[in-house]
Amino acid sequence: MASLLRHAAAAAILGLVRAGAGAAQDAPPPAVTVETLEPQTVTLTSVLPGRVRASAEAEVRPQVSGIVTERLFTEGGTVEAGDVLYRIDPVSYDAAVAQARAAVAQAEATLRVAESEAERVQTLSERGISSSANEESAVSTRDAAAAGLEAARAQLQTTEIELDRTEVRARLSGRIGFSEASQGALVTASQATPLAIIRTLDPVYVDVTQSAADLLAWRRREGPAAEGHREVSLELADGSTYDVTGRLNAAEPHVEEETGVVLLRMSFPNPDGLLLPGMYVQVEMPTGTAEDIFLVPQEGVSRDRRGNPTAMVANAENVVEERPLTILQDRGSDWIVSDGLEAGDRVIVAGLQKIAPGATVAPEERDEEGSGERGADESAESAVQEGNASAPDQRAGDEAAQAGGAAAASQDLAEAEAEPTDGER
């Protein structure tokens, strides 16, 4: 009797274990979202840091000394070339002009007298009344008087220029900054501190730096076309993209010895004045063309223990394969991959948490817009999380049931063994 009970308990425990194993084997393969890749040709770009510069800049400085009597512009406003910006007290310069005009009149009178005397002496010399020495002296006096008149006229012109410079004018059209001199301030000719600065802000320049090695590779790859104008885009400090493209103007023919970089200059239209000098920006510049490459969504790429990029691919038998990748650069939400994938590969982009290399999966293609797929992925992930959360409880219940069954069988077995046989009675 005891032997029969022991065999019955062992059979019950074995049945429970086989039932649990059979339930695990009957579980369907996990569903994953894949994206089928095809080779493409894309333009490679390089993101370079830079600063905005005014396309033209002029420092306003006085060319004569004096007291500022008036400021005629609005700080931060727009001025045109030729506009009067400041007026300097012109009294002393008016007096200098009047004096120079008097000197010109005096020189003209002296010249007239010298010319008359020269004509008279020449006439007498022709008649043999005057000597040649007298004639030469009269001619020299006349020529000296003519030279004196020219000098007086030049002095008059100089004083008139200085008088005109008492009105400080704009030599450039653009936006003018703050004034460093107010009414009543004493200014000097060509002083070190400018009165104001005028900047042309449409267009503006953007100066960026690029390593000499990258520049060499670009020129070797592109050939003569590398020296031509090239369209570039601009990313602002807040992360937004400037809505107007610019042009690559020139490269400085010099490499900085300390940093090994070359300065590149871009030109961007700035009709709204959004770009200001000194602003930090990033320029996205085309550097070449890559053929037969793949655009892989970034969510489908992970890193191994050594930091190398890898991707999980569902093969024709729906078995997961791990592929090492060679990434050239990023492009928006994708990685540009040059090696490691083939045309038609299905890269797993969702459901990576529940798979491993060699596992069988149920792939579902991502739709074009991605919104429905994202919702399905979120629902699938939620279901997986709920299933994972309930699975431990279920397993615990099964284990408890099995343990309870085993304990009951053991108890029955113990009672059976403890019950006395007929012979013992």
Q: Largest sheet, if any?
A: 6 strands, mixed
Number of extended strands: 20
* Form type: elongated
Number of helices: 5
How much is the average pLDDT?
A: 81
**Terminal Cα separation, in Å?**
15 Å
Structural class: alpha+beta
Which residues form runs of ≥5 with pLDDT under 50? 370-425
What is the H/E order? Answer: HEEEEEHHEEEEHEEEEEEEEEEEH
| Strand content range | 25-35%
What would you report as the Rg, rounded to the nearest angstrom?
47 Å
The oligomeric state is single chain
Helix content: 25-40%
Kindly list the characteristics that best describe this protein.
425 residues, alpha+beta, 6-stranded antiparallel barrel, 5 helices, disordered C terminus
Report on this model:
With 425 residues, the protein is α+β, with helices and mostly antiparallel strands. Among the domains are: 73 residues; 62 residues, Helix Hairpins (Orthogonal Bundle). The protein has 5 helices and 20 strands. Strands 1, 14, 15, 16, 19 and 20 form a 6-stranded mixed sheet that branches. It has a 6-stranded antiparallel beta barrel with strand order 2-9-12-11-10-13. Strands 6-5-3-8 form a 4-stranded antiparallel sheet, with no helix packed on it. Helix 1 packs antiparallel against helix 5 and helix 2 runs antiparallel to helix 3. The longest helix has 48 residues. The C terminus is likely disordered.
SSE map:
Blueprint lengths: L1 H24 L5 E6 L3 E21 L5 E6 L6 E2 L4 E5 L2 H37 L4 H33 L2 E3 L4 E3 L9 E2 L8 E16 H11 L8 E5 L10 E10 L5 E8 L11 E18 L3 E3 L5 E6 L5 E5 L1 E6 L2 E6 L6 E5 L11 E4 L5 H48 L7
Parallel strand pairs: 1-20
Antiparallel strand pairs: 1-19, 2-9, 2-13, 3-5, 3-8, 4-7, 5-6, 7-9, 9-12, 10-11, 10-13, 11-12, 13-18, 14-15, 15-16, 15-19, 17-18
Helix pairs in contact: 1-5, 2-3
